[in-house]
């Protein structure tokens, strides 16, 4: 069975390609390299000894999508990662997000709905819950009005998939990620943020390696035990494995609804200061950081109720926060080790 992984050279996509190949799936990757590097293909092959087929296609080009599915008529499943994902950028440039995250989804579904059988795994996000009123967050928590165009594209994407599944052969699983961090234990693949990292863990590792002067902690006046915001940090390999299980669930027709939703997290919340402390423990080095004001749009806390993923999907996160941070640090050392140490920037 051939599986299409869009955005398959990206952070979560590349780790999922590895797990799919480990499970014996043939994989074809579509990626437009706008936020990834072609070298990731070699990284994947170094891990699995199988180089996935690769097509450098921009899914915003409807004809390219149509031509691809004409050429590759044996695609039986799609895992759709390709999307823009920077919350702040989406506020400044909403149409970039609506075009890239919505049009591409529509073009993919237009092809899939013509198939006898179409299994679709969608990369969604806990962002759809906004600031949930109760912790841990279950899949029944209400989807709240999005706090950014990025978050809105995930909500709209889920609705589009649900509407299409009702009237077509498409079966889907929506995976609502919490905070993916870390890197493959082989350090052949990992996170490659372009420019100044927006997310916490890559900023931490770049600070620790000397690329950034210090980490700014966005607010310590939240109503949490240590005042800093709480998130559910999940090892990217654990997250990748959830995608394979979701796909197998559809292939084996175990799904009880045309569209199923799962929260994918560890079920454990960690504050920013707790992450810093864990990182310092793992690396035996102090991390330069300072407290600054809150970041616009941040929620106070978000961590998953993993009951449904554990019992229905048969998936459970295996790695601890420390193990994930350790893998992120080893990856940073490897990536920077290739390059001369850059002057400190912030
Ligand atoms: C985590 C915590 C920050 C950077 C976002 C998206 C989500 C998903 C993951 C794509 C927060 C704090 C961060 C820094 C800090 N993206 N922080 N200093 O915002 O929970 O989730 O990324 O799928 O959809 O919303 O992740 O890593 O940006 O922040 O103090 O330099 O770290 O305030 O409390 P977030 P994050």
Descriptive account of the structure:
By secondary structure, the protein is α/β, with parallel strands linked by helices. The protein has a domain at 2-180 and 235-264: Rossmann fold, CATH 3.40.50.720. The protein has eleven helices and 14 strands. The protein has helices at 11-22, 39-48, 62-71, 87-92, 94-112, 149-166, 200-208, 236-251, 272-283, 307-313, 321-337; strands spanning 2-6, 26-30, 53-55, 75-80, 118-125, 170-177, 179-181, 215-218, 230-231, 233-235, 259-264, 270-271, 289-292, 301-302. It is globular and about 55 Å long. Residues 85, 87, 125, 127, 177, 179, 198-200, 203, 215-218, 229, 231, 272, 295, 298 line the site of UDP-4-deoxy-4-formamido-beta-L-arabinopyranose.
């Amino acid at each position: 069975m051939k599986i299409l992984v869009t955005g398959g050279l990206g952070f979560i996509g590349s780790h999922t390609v590895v797990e799919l190949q480990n499970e014996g799936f043939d994989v074809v990757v579509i990626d437009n390299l706008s936020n990834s590097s072609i070298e990731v293909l070699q990284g994947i092959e170094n891990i699995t000894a199988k180089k996935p087929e690769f097509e450098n296609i921009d899914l915003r080009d409807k004809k390219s999508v149509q031509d691809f599915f004409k050429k590759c008529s044996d695609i039986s499943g799609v895992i759709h990662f390709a999307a823009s994902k920077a919350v702040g950028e989406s506020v400044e440039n909403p149409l970039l997000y609506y075009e890239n995250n919505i049009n591409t989804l529509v073009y993919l579904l237009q092809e899939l709905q013509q198939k006898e059988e179409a299994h679709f795994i969608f990369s969604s996000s806990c962002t759809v819950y906004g600031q949930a009123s109760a912790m841990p967050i279950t899949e029944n928590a209400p989807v709240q009005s999005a706090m950014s165009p990025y978050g809105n594209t995930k909500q709209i994407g889920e609705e589009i998939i649900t509407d299409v599944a009702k009237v077509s052969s498409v079966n889907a699983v929506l995976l609502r990620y919490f905070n993916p961090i870390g890197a493959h234990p082989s350090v052949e693949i990992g996170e490659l943020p372009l420019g100044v990292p927006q997310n916490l863990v890559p900023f931490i590792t770049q600070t620790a390696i000397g690329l950034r002067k210090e980490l700014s902690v966005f607010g310590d006046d939240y109503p949490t035990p240590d005042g800093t915001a709480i998130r559910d940090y999940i090892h990217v390999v654990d997250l990748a494995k959830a995608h394979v299980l979701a796909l197998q669930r559809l292939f084996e027709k175990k799904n009880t609804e045309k569209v199923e939703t799962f929260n994918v997290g560890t079920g454990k919340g960690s504050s920013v200061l707790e992450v810093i402390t864990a990182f310092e423990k793992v690396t035996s080095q102090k991390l330069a950081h300072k407290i600054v004001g809150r970041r616009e749009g941040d929620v106070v806390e978000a961590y998953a109720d993993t009951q449904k993923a554990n019992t229905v999907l048969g998936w459970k996160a295996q790695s601890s926060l420390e193990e994930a941070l350790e893998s992120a640090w080893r990856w940073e050392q490897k990536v920077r080790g290739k390059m001369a140490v850059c002057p400190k920037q912030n």
